[in-house]
Amino acid sequence: MIDRSKFEAEDFLIDATFQHYCAGTDRLSTAYWSKYIAQHPEQQKTIAEAEKLYQLLSGNKAKLNERILAFQESFEQVKTVPLKLRRIWWAVAAAVLITLGIGSVFFVKEKPQPAVYADAYHTASGERRKVTLPDGSTVWLNAKSTLKLDKNFNKSNRLVWLQGEGFFDVTHSKKPFKVQTSEFEINVLGTAFNVKAYPDEITSEATLIRGLITMQTVDGAGIITLKPSQKITLYKKKNATILPQLKRQSKILPPEITIDHYQLVRDSTVVETAWTQNRIEIFDQDFGEVKSILEKWYNVKITFTDQELEKYRFTATFSNETVKQVLDALQQVEKFNYEIKGDQIKISK
Asked: Where are the transmembrane segments (predicted)?
């Protein structure tokens, strides 16, 4: 999670999603920051200063230096402005103006035409696969995933559809590369990112490793711009298949988003993409989440005899271990019993 406890006004303002919140142009950003502000009353004064700075920088057509001067003069207690702070203000102002200048590019969306998919790639439970696309881009598919290419891929477009999880390393081209899932669409030019969108999980994720991407929900709620190391988690809307998990797991009412940074382990491995290195990285996850990972990785079905077991939390790394060895290791952290019969695993207290 991002630690914003020591953020100054400028730190909030250089975040593109905070700028969209201030402008009121993006429902996803507005929902995220409204919730954040309500949960952190101790930072409301600082955030109010950031919002005031945004309005001063974007509220009229005055020259950039006049906007910054107006902001400085609005704080009577500041008699002199240190050189370092002046540099921060210039950087913030530039970030805001860039966002304002290109915002229309992100928010003008043509009416989509129905895609017709041709080539398709699939992975089964326990299988991971590397795919090289016609434009030279590569995609690693995690277990139980499907990737479909539009019939005009690399001709008139670079459009793909993903269900499951994929790590994309996209070759730069004038044709935008688009990834569609059931919850959102990602637009890129050339970059590396991970998308996780399994239909049986309560969240979908997009994690940016390199470059720049924009993500828009299919219901048109808004567009989020991701910067390197950022990760967006989208909580799905209620439906019959995921509602029981939502009741068990949290007080969160979907749909919502969280914006964080990806997680690094001690050897600088990115947790969200460790699977591409044939590693399972479990980072402070509950047993319910671990269950989903193990089922796909080992092609097994896991059931709990007590819902309290799903609240157990683990942090661990596995590479070549069997599922039995994984469960044995987890037993060293929390007390539970398990029984394996073929591909069926029962976990009990």
From this structure: 88-108
